What does this fold into?
Amino acid sequence: MTVLKTDLSSFNNDWYKPGRSTFIIGAWYLVNRAFFKSFFPYYGPKRFLLRLFGAKVGQGLIIKPHVSIKYPWNLVVGSHVWIGEEVWIDNLAKVTLKDNCCVSQGALLLCGNHNYKKSTFDLVTGEITLEEGAWAGAKTVVCPGVRLGSHSLLTVGSIATSSLEPFWIYQGNPAIKLKPRELRS
It folds into this structure.
């Protein structure tokens, strides 16, 4: 019996196109480094720069320092969204953050992974959506193809490997449904 092994020398993701020229990607890398991954604290210029590079951004985005965004042209942000310190939006595919979402400090929105069943370790991608009022807690991971339903909550350190139902609290690795999320005024 022949056993296949991982062969990274055979890896080829030529099919993946980030959607912009090498020059634009390089320019974004410098802007991301200077204004987003740094301590730069001002929200207005960050909103302007995201829009300049193709992101769709609503009103009142709060985006804290030390945030990394792979490709702003793959980012759609609603109104009154909060993005905390050290968030990494690894958006090889589209990421949508609808109105009143919160992505807490250190969260990772991961749109890409590799097919562990293939010896060539092929790249796979999937879109991520946080519906209105969804909250990805501190140090959480949202995996490719996952949707956080309206007002769902992924608690601190949890990993969403599948979609979350609206108005439920999820916890763990992989995250499991705990209890309803009941909001009060």
